[in-house]
Amino acid sequence: MKKLFFISFVAIAGLLFLQGKTAPVATHTALNAELPANVKAVVDQKCYGCHNANSKNEKGKAKLDWDELGKLKKSKRVAAMDKISEVLAEGKMPPEKFLANKPEAKLSESDLATLVEWSAGKKKSKK
Asked: ∠ CA(41), CA(34), CA(50), 5° rounding?
């Protein structure tokens, strides 16, 4: 009887312990988990400064938050990637106004091709 009580107690205590643990929250979820290395490098250097949860650029983070991209449901993530592809194809990012102050943020042809291929899903980028 004591053995049965002890096993039950340990099992319940174990379940309570596991229930209280939360999954670790990774920063830059989309950057760490979802992006190939070559895409991540471009995003880190050219995009992330304005498009993240902690950005002072309210308009930029409202339009695209790289931290949230990886957390979206697949359908919303695909829609966001379509929008990224569209904006890049139209040459709207980075904006001319921004580039006037920070010309180093201009996307090179290679950077642009990397982002367009990834966002359009044309082929898998190398990791």
From this structure: 55
Q: Is residue 82 part of a domain?
A: yes
Q: What is the pLDDT of residues 69-114, one digit of tens each?
A: 888 888 888 899 899 999 998 988 998 988 898 899 899 999 999 9
Q: What is the pLDDT of residue 4?
A: 73
Give the residue numbers spanning the domain of 52: 26-120
Q: H helices then E strands: how many in the chain?
A: 8, 0
Helix axes 74-89, 109-120, angle to 10 degrees: 150
Q: Judge if pTM exceeds 0.85.
A: no
Q: Burial, 43: exposed, middle or buried (Cβ in 10 Å; 0-12, 13-18, 19+)?
A: buried
8 located within any domain: no
Question: From residue 16, how far is each of 4, 9, 20 by CA, in Å?
Answer: 18, 11, 6
| The amino acid at 6 | F
In angstroms, the CA 127 to CA 50 distance is 24
